[in-house]
TrEMBL record:
It comes from Streptomyces curacoi. This is Riboflavin biosynthesis protein RibD. Converts 2,5-diamino-6-(ribosylamino)-4(3h)-pyrimidinone 5'-phosphate into 5-amino-6-(ribosylamino)-2,4(1h,3h)-pyrimidinedione 5'-phosphate. It holds the Pfam family RibD_C. Its EC number is 3.5.4.26.
Length: 377
């Protein structure tokens, strides 16, 4: 299962939801203190990505302006500037744009056709061709695995933000609301039409910065099928945190579980040995909080730090069976069950054989194992 960078979308909008106006000059939406905050965020990431449309419209430099922040990056063993990445299908990029001639390393992610064009009209950047069409998951995997990007800041424009959010690939949205109106229907909007997650995003923070307001949101909707969404990772991280809350045991694992509806609503959570039940399992504890036949279960996802059990001494029905009986069709887990108590347990296999989509996200295995270290060789 691939792992992706943490993807942070950053944008400023007018009160009527526009990213810019239609004049040739860039519309300044943020306040000076907020530009400095953006500088700080840039200094904290491994790469900054913008669409080719923003290079054409704004001709940005995308620098870390603060010399102190650049020095701190260097002192921490990082490049002075984050990698600058742009995305273009056409490869029609102006070689004289500021983007190529300021800051550190640059990368163009493009299609085979775009790469061909860039061979004829090169820009001062590495070019990676990602096939006939560009797939965002391939791009994110490339940035993570080939370029070592763990944190990616995406600074627009709207076409890019819309795709990443609609495809469930954004971990966080940092939105600044500026107290002015654009009022021109031809101006670019932050988010275009299309299919977004159902339900509500989670509000992480609001912050007043001079006359603008920063709002930080986290998407909440589980992915579909075996494709992970960014929200899948957040819910699985929560399941791992719940595992750390279990009363300790020498004879059973500490596990956390969360049941989440398709629209991103948390339905129930549980952890091993919860309350005054010394043998209850995490998935069992969570599912017991929901009415049998709850219609939301059929499209829900169960997140569990350790894969559901197939055999248990303490109760007759193992958790994999409880999940099937509840009608859940999607399970995300961090860790396959070791042979500590049951040899050859294969909860993921049992569920998959019954038609459940099972995802194992091994990047959370260390976190899932931590409260169980005393049970492992
Ligand atoms: N207020 C803010 O915070 C903020 C921030 C950034 C930008 N903006 C504004 O946003 C506007 C630009 O936004 P925009 O939506 O027009 O452009 P954009 O999102 O910056 O870039 C769109 C371009 O990216 C490439 N692209 C997008 N999706 C792709 C895919 N799946 N595969 C391959 N290439 C892909 C295409 O380039 P090719 O055409 O080369 O194929 C496409 O034309 C400007 O007015 C700018 O001022 C505002």
């Amino acid at each position: 299962m691939p792992s992706y960078p943490y993807v942070l979308l950053s944008a400023a909008v007018s009160l009527d939801g526009y990213l810019d106006d239609t004049t040739p000059e860039r519309l300044l939406l943020s306040s000076p203190a907020d530009f400095d905050r953006v500088d700080e965020v840039r200094a904290s990431v491994d790469a900054i990505l913008i669409g080719a449309g923003t290079i054409r419209a704004d001709n940005p430099r995308l620098l870390v302006n603060s010399a102190e922040r650049r020095a701190a990056r260097v002192a921490a063993g990082k490049p002075e500037y984050p990698l600058k990445v742009t995305v273009s299908a056409s490869g029609e990029l102006d070689p004289t744009a500021n983007f190529w001639h300021t800051g550190g390393e640059k990368l163009v992610c493009t299609t085979d056709k775009g790469a061909e064009r860039l061979r004829r009209t090169p820009v001062a950047a590495d070019v990676v061709a990602l096939g006939a069409e560009l797939d965002w998951r391939d791009l994110l995997r490339h940035l993570h695995e080939v370029r070592g990007v763990d944190r990616l800041m995406v600074e627009g424009g709207g076409t890019i933000h819309t795709q990443l959010l609609q495809q469930g690939l954004a971990d966080e949205l940092q939105l600044v609301l500026a107290p002015l109106f654009v009022g021109d229907p031809d101006a670019p909007r932050l988010f275009g039409p299309g299919g977004y997650q159902e339900g509500r995003l989670r509000l992480l923070e609001t912050r007043r910065i001079e006359d603008v307001v920063l709002m930080r949101y986290q998407p909440t909707a589980p992915g579909t099928g075996t494709l992970p969404s960014a929200a899948d990772r957040h819910w699985l991280a929560l399941a791992c945190e719940l595992a750390a809350q279990c009363p300790p045991s020498r004879t059973a694992f500490s596990v956390g579980a969360v049941v989440v509806a398709a629209d991103g609503t948390e339905l129930a959570r549980g952890h091993s040995r919860e309350g005054d039940d010394p043998v209850v399992h995490a998935e069992e504890a969570a599912l017991a909080k929901l009415a049998p036949g709850d219609p939301r279960l059929a499209s829900a996802t169960v997140y569990t730090s350790l894969e559901p059990c197939t055999h248990r001494a303490s109760r007759p029905v193992p958790c994999a069976r409880l999940i099937l009986e509840a009608g859940v069709r999607r399970v995300v887990t961090a860790w396959r069950e070791p042979d500590t108590f049951v040899a050859g347990a294969d909860g993921s296999g049992l569920l998959a054989a019954a038609g459940v989509d099972v995802l194992v996200l091994p990047e959370y295995e260390t976190q899932a194992k931590a409260p169980n270290a005393h049970l492992l060789p």
